[in-house]
């Protein structure tokens, strides 16, 4: 691990969400069920732990009965300069599918490009680059 890795608790759709992020960002996907972790506090096929590793690292699971599911307010995940401009443009487009482009990815008066999108799972992303 190279630094801060977000860990998200999903409301029963961790497999779907983490698979989506894997499709967007690539890397390696790992998923482990409650059954594999000998957890009995939820459905055996619920995700007890999963994640993607690669250019973007992200982990998560299905929220347990005593956990709130993800609801982030007043924050975004920043992917400023984490890949080539073409890759960042593609990530922005893919995250927008089923989500909302809050501020389109565009050139700013200071010369850099950035934009913000909330994806279909309610996660807000800030994506940008310099040319």
What does this entry look like structurally?
By secondary structure, this protein is of the alpha/beta class. Helices cover 18% and strands 35% of the residues. The mean pLDDT is 95.
Helices and strands, with pairings:
Blueprint: E1 7-10, H1 14-25, E2 28-33, E3 47-53, E4 58-62, E5 77-80, H2 85-96, E6 100-107, E7 113-118, E8 124-129
Parallel strand pairs: 1-4, 5-8
Antiparallel strand pairs: 2-3, 3-4, 6-7, 7-8
Features:
131 residues; alpha/beta; Signal recognition particle alu RNA binding heterodimer, srp9/1; 2 domains; four-stranded mixed sheet; 2 helices; elongated
A few lines on this structure:
With 131 residues, the chain is of the alpha/beta class. 18% of the residues lie in helices and 35% in strands.
Q: Give the biggest sheet.
A: 4 strands, mixed
Provide the helix percentage: 10-25%
What number of domains? 2
Which strands sit side by side, in order, in the main sheet?
1-4-3-2
What structural class is derived from the secondary structure elements? alpha/beta
Strand content: 35-45%
User: pLDDT below 50 for ≥5 consecutive residues: which ranges?
Assistant: none
The radius of gyration over CA amounts to 16 Å
The geometry reads as: elongated
Strand/helix succession: EHEEEEHEEE
What gap, in angstroms, lies between the N and C termini?
A: 28 Å
């Amino acid at each position: 691990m190279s630094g801060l890795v977000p860990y998200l608790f999903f409301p029963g759709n961790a497999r779907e969400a983490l698979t989506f992020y894997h499709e967007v960002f690539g890397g390696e996907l790992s998923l482990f069920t409650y059954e594999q972790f000998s957890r009995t506090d939820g459905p055996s096929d619920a995700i007890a732990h999963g994640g993607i590793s690669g250019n973007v690292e992200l982990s998560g699971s299905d929220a347990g009965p005593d956990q709130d599911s993800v609801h982030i307010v007043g924050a975004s995940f920043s992917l400023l300069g984490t890949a080539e401009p073409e890759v960042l443009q593609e990530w922005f487009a893919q995250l927008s599918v089923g989500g909302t482009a809050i501020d389109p990815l565009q050139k700013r008066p200071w010369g850099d490009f950035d934009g913000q999108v909330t994806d279909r799972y309610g996660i807000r992303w800030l994506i940008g680059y310099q040319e």
